[in-house]
């Protein structure tokens, strides 16, 4: 059994998609980040970085429970555990390269673009431009790579595609104001339609839909999501 620590945001969405694709038995454990539950000691024992997603696999490599955090690490762990969505052995160098491109580039720059366009105080035009342009640059790198390719790595659907789906599903929010955000990236658009049409993608979108997560953006939420913006309690 996989205990899946979840909030309805792009990085957990990647794990939802893998779990639905693989058919692994899992239980959703909600972590309401707007209430600060990611900072609870019990969760920090699983992920000291205080971020979702995280998992606890009751049947770890040595037969004991294993905790894994960071969406890229979880995808690699689950793919190796199941032997699925890893592609061909000869494609592993490219798989690692593109997973890290997504995990350290496209995802974080997309997240910062969202933050500065929606959550940061007005007047930070340099930061808004910086992160929006970097998100667009990463989109262009991936779009060029996908020319004449069906999937991101090799000839098979892999965890690289699963990873990319999580954030590219949020293109309308990342590329704020764009009427058709993927229009400048036709290869990504084609690829996204293919992945998004998979039955597991529809199931992944429903994960956690029965959980009432906090939606109000008040001071509690801001302190929970951006604690470094506030002075420590005396």
UniProtKB/TrEMBL annotation:
Residue ranges of domain GST C-terminal in the record: 88-225
PROSITE patterns referenced in this protein's UniProt entry, alphabetically: GST_CTER (PS50405), GST_NTER (PS50404)
Domain GST N-terminal: from-to ranges: 1-86
Superkingdom per UniProt: Bacteria
InterPro entries for the chain: Glutathione-S-Trfase_C-like, Glutathione-S-Trfase_C_sf, Glutathione_S-Trfase, Glutathione_S-Trfase_N, Thioredoxin-like_sf
PANTHER family from the UniProt entry: DISULFIDE-BOND OXIDOREDUCTASE YFCG, GLUTATHIONE S-TRANSFERASE-RELATED
Protein name: Glutathione S-transferase N-terminal domain-containing protein
